[in-house]
Write a structure and sequence with these properties.
34% of the residues lie in helices and 39% in strands. By secondary structure, the protein is of the alpha+beta class. The strands form two sheets. Strands 2, 3, 4, 5 and 6 form a five-stranded antiparallel beta sheet that branches. A two-stranded antiparallel sheet has the order 1-7. Helix 1 crosses helix 2. The longest helix has 14 residues. It starts with a strand and ends with a helix. 25% of the residues are buried.
């Protein structure tokens, strides 16, 4: 086990599966994320937008990246995303497999 420190998990939601796949493919190709998991089953999201309660079917992306790539990843997600203000939440990885974290870092260089 190794301390995470520089590794992040980023959560992004999309309104369609095709948009989710497009974003996942692009950010991995550009080495902004080492891996992106696309949850294939839609979820119901409840939120307030412009003063109105909304309910939407969304697909969740779970992206693995590093602090060094985070700003570029966010910029690319915003460029590709159809939402005015897409969810983009980065969570610090406290610890993980030494081999996996080494692979993650080498994949986004």
């Amino acid at each position: 086990m190794k301390a995470g420190g520089r590794s992040l998990v980023v959560l992004v939601t999309c309104g369609t599966l095709s948009e989710s796949r497009k974003i996942a493919r692009r950010v991995v190709q550009k080495k902004l994320a080492a891996c992106v998991n696309v949850l294939l089953s839609p979820m119901n999201s409840f939120y307030t937008w412009k003063g109105k309660l909304e309910v939407a079917r969304e697909y969740l992306l779970v992206m693995k990246t590093t602090r060094n790539r985070l700003a570029e990843l966010e910029k690319e997600v915003k460029r590709l995303h159809s939402y005015e203000a897409p969810e983009f939440i980065a969570l610090l990885v406290a610890a993980g497999s030494k081999d996996y974290l080494a692979w993650l870092e080498s994949s986004v260089r």
